[in-house]
Amino acid sequence: MFEILKNKEVGPDIFYLVLKCDELSEQPKPGQFFNVKISRKLSTDPLLRRPFSVFDFDEDQNILELVYRKVGRGTEILSKYKAGEKLDVIGPLGNPFSTEKRSGLIHLVGGGMGIVPLHYLARTLEKGEKKVFLGAENSDELEFFTKRFKKMNVEIHRAAMTEKMEIKGSVLVLWMNYLDQEKPLFVYTCGPEKMLSAVEKECLKSSIQGQLSIERRMGCGIGVCLSCSCETTEGNKRSCVDGPVFTLGEVVLNA
Ligand SMILES: Cc1cc2nc3c(=O)[nH]c(=O)nc-3n(C[C@H](O)[C@H](O)[C@H](O)COP(=O)(O)OP(=O)(O)OC[C@H]3O[C@@H](n4cnc5c(N)ncnc54)[C@H](O)[C@@H]3O)c2cc1C
Ligand code: FES
């Protein structure tokens, strides 16, 4: 059980959850996730744990940061937890992003809550030239993320669907404007599968390597129930243990 240090709204229905995690079996890696038991003592509502990506981790103080959007029953209940209460959390789980040193430009493309895992990734890839492309419905949804990305050595580009930031429109269009002018060495992406599919298509067309993280619905989170099964070029895989991070071109996406 980990103590909640903070659970506060930082954007429209977007919550920032900070946990003191003194007994983790290992330090989380970027792209991994934690499976959170949201139901309170003596309750089974909701029955299943909910997965959330690592937004950041402070290895000196064992502080885990998650960011989640309130979308349904589980996240509604989660949003009511207060600092000082405890949460039953399992993790870190899943296959992380590769963070090997690369000498060349890196692009990180995130849409909606797909931005979350890219933050810890960008911080881990601290050295080297990086551009991050962030997209959401409006600027309020990007405010918290922007503040945090500004604290690190990364060039930030933002798009919103309903108002003009760098452009008014999707992060995909914004990113493709840059892709017309430069060829990154590696691309990391997370967000809606339609966006992932389009990013993947552009990268494969230009022989750019990369990885994506998918957010399929999960049951157990530890490879047992098969509810997160996804089709890949090597047959069906479980996105909780074989993913959520996959190489571009590996997974059949729901585009
Ligand atoms: C590996 C992984 C990492 C994730 N990381 C984050 C994160 O960092 N921040 C965050 O906000 N969310 C993240 N998610 C999604 C998050 O787990 C779901 O939003 C959450 O489980 C919804 O629970 P709920 O009970 O509130 O919603 P429910 O009542 O179960 O569902 C409400 C609505 O949300 C949709 N939904 C539920 N789960 C998912 C899902 N996995 N993918 C897409 N749509 C879903 C349902 O179809 C439904 O329309 C992640 C999911 C995965 C698989
Ligand atoms: S969630 Fe159960 S096998 Fe992946």
3D structure, described in words:
It is a single chain. This protein is of the alpha/beta class. The chain folds into two domains: 2-93, Beta Barrel (Elongation Factor Tu (Ef-tu), domain 3); 105-247, Rossmann fold, CATH 3.40.50.80. Helix content is 19%, strand content 34%. The chain is built from five helices and 16 strands.
Describe the structure in brief.
Helix content is 19%, strand content 34%. By secondary structure, it is α/β, with parallel strands linked by helices. Helix 2 links the parallel strand 8 (106-111) and strand 9 (130-136).
Features:
7-stranded antiparallel beta sheet; Elongation Factor Tu (Ef-tu), domain 3; 34% strand; binds FE2/S2 (inorganic) cluster; 255 residues; single chain; binds flavin-adenine dinucleotide; alpha/beta; Rossmann fold; 2 domains; 19% helix; 7-stranded mixed beta sheet
Q: Can you list the strand order of the major beta sheet?
A: 4-3-7-1-2-6-5
Instruction: Note the gap between the termini.
Output: 38 Å
Instruction: Report the major sheet.
Output: 7 strands, antiparallel
What is the count of helical runs?
Answer: 5
Query: Which molecules are bound in this entry?
Result: flavin-adenine dinucleotide, FE2/S2 (inorganic) cluster
CATH class of the largest domain: Alpha Beta
**What value does the Rg take, in angstroms?**
18 Å
Total beta strands: 16
Q: What integer is the average pLDDT?
A: 96
Poorly predicted segments: none
Helix-strand topology string: EEEEEEHEEHEHEEHEHEEEE
Q: At the fourth CATH level, what is the homologous superfamily of the largest domain?
A: Nucleotide-binding domain of ferredoxin-NADP reductase (FNR) module
In one word, what is the shape?
A: globular
Helix content: 10-25%
Structural class: alpha/beta
Strand content: 25-35%
Q: Briefly note the CATH topology name of the largest domain.
A: Rossmann fold
Q: Tell me what the CATH architecture of the largest domain is.
A: 3-Layer(aba) Sandwich
Return the domain count.
Answer: 2
